[in-house]
Write a structure and sequence with these properties.
Elements (H helix, E strand, L loop, with lengths): L10 E5 L4 H12 L3 E6 L5 E2 L5 H14 L4 E4 L8 H20 L6 E5 L10 H8 L3 H10 L8 H17 L11 E7 L8 H4 L2 H10 L11 H11 L11 E4 L3 H6 L6
Parallel strand pairs: 1-2, 1-4, 2-3, 4-5, 5-6, 6-7
Helix pairs in contact: 1-9, 2-3, 3-6, 4-5, 4-6
């Protein structure tokens, strides 16, 4: 059983803290007496733009000035532009850049937020460019083929690459070997400002709900439901879970894929 007292005295870095799932996560942590260093474009302790290399370096420098931390929650994402830049390169730079600070904690944890959009058909060459760390090539390839990634486009590509990066690095010496649990939470459609374009257009909403039903909890989900899972994975009580892509989506991924991975 998780005790809310297990969060007290721990310091959490939360990107995307000004709205949506990031705001819900920061609020839950503060309710549980954790210290939160919120990071966003505005209205946060740390202001930085994760779509640019300069903004990523600024975030790491500003957080470092606060001193030791216990968990990094890379929630920031979404957007209509800078999809690869923010959702993949920004998230990875946050996690990798703050990893040395995490290593000083007695119970270091990290969580990245992905999406069920990562399940969509993708452009493997763009995903690979992301994993190779070649931001210029990845962005150029997406600009050359805006239809890559199907209806979810660059967003789904970025989240697929993020899932794969976590799966690749989480068991390694610098993460699991250093006692740092690194996991991904992949939400379905949640009632956040980033999902407004889906939820405010009845035609789009019906199409998305039909294509990706959420039989448990309904459509859309609530950001605090996803935040609860993020908080547990990032808490000291998580002693044995790492390298996992956990879908918090009301059953959407299970409905779409069934037992595919176990055949």
């Amino acid at each position: 059983m998780t005790s809310h007292g297990s969060f007290a005295g721990r310091t959490y870095v939360v990107t995307g803290s000004a709205s949506g799932i990031g705001a819900a996560t920061a609020a839950l942590l503060r309710e549980r007496d954790a210290k939160v260093i919120g990071c966003d474009l505005a209205d946060a302790e740390v202001t930085a733009d994760l779509s640019t290399p300069e903004g990523r370096r600024s975030l790491v420098a500003q957080v470092t000035a606060y001193g030791p931390i216990d968990a990094v929650l890379a929630v920031a994402g979404g957007g209509k532009t800078g999809l690869l830049e923010t959702n993949y390169f920004g998230a990875v730079a946050t996690l990798a850049g703050l990893r040395p600070l995490l290593a000083q904690s007695p119970a270091p944890r990290a969580v990245a937020v992905s999406s069920t959009s990562s399940l969509a058909p993708t452009a493997d060459h763009i995903v690979q460019a992301c994993l190779d760390g070649d931001e210029a090539a990845a962005v150029a390839a997406l600009e050359a083929d805006p239809a890559a990634g199907g209806p979810v486009g660059g967003y789904g590509i970025a989240k697929r690459a993020l899932n794969r990066w976590v799966r690749q690095v989480a068991p390694n010496p610098e993460w699991a070997g250093a006692g740092i649990a690194l996991n991904v939470v992949a939400p379905g459609v949640v009632d956040t400002p980033a999902a407004a374009y889906i939820l405010t257009d009845d035609t789009v909403r019906q199409a998305v709900e039909s294509a990706a039903p959420q039989p448990f909890g309904g459509f859309p989900g609530r950001p605090e439901w996803v935040a609860e899972l993020i908080c547990w994975l990032a808490g000291a009580d998580n002693r044995f879970v790492t390298g996992q892509i956990i879908f918090a989506d009301g059953g959407s991924e299970a409905a779409a894929l069934g037992d595919l991975h176990w055949r």
